[in-house]
Amino acid sequence: MHEYSIVQSLVDAVETAVWRTGNPACPDRRDGLSPTVYRIEVRIGELSGVDTELLATAYDVFRAGTCCETATMTIDRVPARWQCPKCSRDIAAGAVLRCPSCHEPAQLASGDEIILQRIELEVA
Q1: Which of 118, 123, 110, 112 is nearest to 10 (CA)?
Q2: What is the per-residue pLDDT across 1-55, written as a single tens digit (0 to 9) for each?
Q3: Cβ burial, residue 88 (10 Å; 0-12/13-18/19+)
Q4: How far apart are CA 102 and CA 84, in angstroms?
Q5: pLDDT tens profile 86-118
Q6: What's the CA gap between 71 and 41, in Å, rounded?
């Protein structure tokens, strides 16, 4: 189950962003201020190989004792989108992965990403 390692990376990224030294919006650990993370938003492509239900379960288990302990996680699914690299024409889902105009092989334009999109937090 690689969803646990993905959750570990997401929580690490949130912690790094929250405690980034030098960012005026984020406190320095030495200030003694403890930001509260309320929500994180993650974009998951349908071809990323991530089971979003397992990811949500892994997040619920793993977040205890982290900066995300009270934060909810919203998952935005991104559908796969294929495109011609030459003329940028979109290739319809289920179609042959070749451009009907230029006959170039299609490229995956989106749908394989795992992105920490947003962190909502409050700083005391």
Answers
A1: 118
A2: 589 999 999 999 998 888 764 555 555 555 556 678 999 999 999 999 999 999 9
A3: exposed
A4: 8
A5: 999 999 988 999 999 999 999 999 999 999 999
A6: 10
CATH of the domain at 52: 3.30.2320.50
User: pTM of this prediction?
Assistant: 0.79
- Asked whether residue 93 is assigned to any structural domain, the reply reads no
Instruction: Flag whether 24 is in a domain.
Output: yes
What is the rounded CA–CA span in Å between residue 41 and residue 76? 7
Say whether 121 sits in a helix, a strand or coil: strand
Expressed as residue numbers, the domain containing 33 is: 3-79+109-122
Number of domains in the chain: 1
| Residue 99: inside a domain | no
Instruction: Tell me whether residue 100 is exposed, middle or buried, using C-beta atoms within 10 angstroms of its C-beta: 0 to 12, 13 to 18, 19 or more.
Output: exposed
Upper half-sphere CA count for residue 50 (Cβ side, 13 Å): 28
Whether residue 31 is contained in a domain is answered as yes
